[in-house]
Model the fold of this input.
Amino acid sequence: MASSLAQRKACLITGASDGIGYATAAALARAGCEIWLMVRNAEKGNKAKQRLQSATGNEHLHLLITDLSSQQQIRAAAATLRDQLNRLDVLINNAGTWISKRTLTEEGIEKVFAVNHLAPFLLTRELYPLLQHSADARVINVSSDNHYQARINFDDLFMEKGYHGLRSYAQSKLAMVLFTREFERRKPDPHVSIFAVQPGLVHTDIGLKQTTWLHTLAWKVRRSLWRSKTPEEGAATSVFLAQQEDVRQQSGTYWDNCQPKPASREANDPAIASRLWDTSLSL
Done:
């Protein structure tokens, strides 16, 4: 394992206490990275950190307790990192949620859209000064093939009319791909790369946490009837993009199973991407 931060990659992973985020952190910890685990629940975060240290032997693990539905907490966490680090090599926007009942954040924003899209958008902007100081920075946005079924409804972005958790989730994941595309177009630094990732159907509890009994049952049935990936398999593409040397020229692309693939037609529309960027700034 590398002995100094000058030799180790500095990585931040959101939603790292379990599931895909934990598996991503474990793989990068084994590679000797310095890792910041951004989690919402302090108790779960501390247990995850202890498990990671025991499993990987990596002592360079840190916790950042942050509720990604709160812009105030995101800004505070980013300020803490800017005080503690001189660079950030890898930012993995992994955390995600889907909720059966329409819920608003403290800023009055629909929560799935806030956590799955606006949080990565804001966190990436807040940490960009640290990414600029890396010789080869990577931003990895965990999206989903659900984005193929979605469109951005700018007239009802927070789904006041006809809310459905899966439709909200799909819209937020499309927003992640559009953000990836527009970041690539607008970024001032060629040494900062960005990618959107499809982890696949992974055996996690995302469909069990804030869902109705019917959606909980549907998620359990879906996991059992279709061959779901392990969290480690779901994390593989993020880990690949965090470490692979020759992917910078493919920045701005959508990835699945460690290979780029076409995103949806909506995700490739530059006018929609630009409008969403401006809308996200205003929010």
Remarks:
- The mean pLDDT is 91.
- The radius of gyration is 18 Å.
- The longest helix spans residues 111-132.
